[in-house]
Amino acid sequence: MRTRLRAAGLLDIADTLDARQRLSAEDGLRLFEHPDLHLVGWLANRERERRHGDRAFYNYNLRLEVTNVCQASCLFCSFARLQEGQPGAYTMSLEQAWDTVRTRDGQALTEVHIVNGLHPHLPFSYYTDLLAGFKRIRPDITLKAFTAVEIAFFADLYGMTDEQVLRELMAVGLESIPGGGAEIFADRVRRKIAHDKADADRYLSIHATAHRLGMKTNVTMLFGHIERLDERVDHMVRVREAQDATGGFQAFIPLTFHPDNNQMRKLPPPTAADTLRTIAVSRLMLDNVEHIKAFWIATGVSVAQAALWYGADDLDGTVQEERIYHMAGSDTPDILTTAQLRFLVERAGRTPLERDTMYNLVGA
Fold first, then answer.
1. CB-based contacts of 102: which residues, under 8 Å, 6+ apart?
2. Is the torsion defined by CA of 65, 286, 356, 247 positive or negative?
């Protein structure tokens, strides 16, 4: 293999990894541009197996979007509606939201994952009551809710600091915040595709605050639209620097862009090869983030299976009610059962392990 790496011009990168030294941004760009995808994948798989062996994680979770009313106008979004009353707009009552958990009383759920639009007319009590109600119904379930973009929106709308918002939500049951809203950190791109929501600095600041308050969180990257490869690498480097400072990111989640039903529909979606390469480079660049997730809703089930050999060690979970990607044209199932997830992992040649939100093994 060293001969092949030398011939491909990647031996220096392999040696850097063997020495447990950090790859540079230039190294990351080389990995994106290298013609041998499988060799890049081999390097990523080697790093993945050094950390996790043949283990692949999943969780028993429920995705919930309680409103898609949103004052932001992200070009890539097929989910949001600008105001109540528009075709397709909805906002759940608290009872409707709580019923999504009540009706699953017999399920061994460990997590409710909540992401919403930026609704300008709901009181803050709607969100605190929402979480408190879930905790009354299922005290054992972990609530991973509200992206950093939502936290920033709450703070600005209700006249609070970001930390005040987090503390009040934690007081009623918030235990983690998801990674959505990161998109691409590069200002050039963000101004074009998501100009009217929290910028990269605020996103990272809110996660840093959450980490300081004792929460573990995730971080994402939306790729395959108008960003350049060097901007993907820059995004990873900024995540890595933030992780150096706080250590609070549990997983990095590359999210594939889907073009259907949004303002960027003329663009093609990322190929499977691009998705696998992005996951592989993520594993190689993010030496201080423990988990790389292949979110099967976004990648497609087959690509997610393959990604378990290209650096990913986590498939997310059962999901159950995801709308954001399906409204953008994802043709993945609405739900995978835990049995199906185990089957997919095993057929990919890995050992499936159920985890909770904090990566504790369930039933261990």
1. 137
2. negative
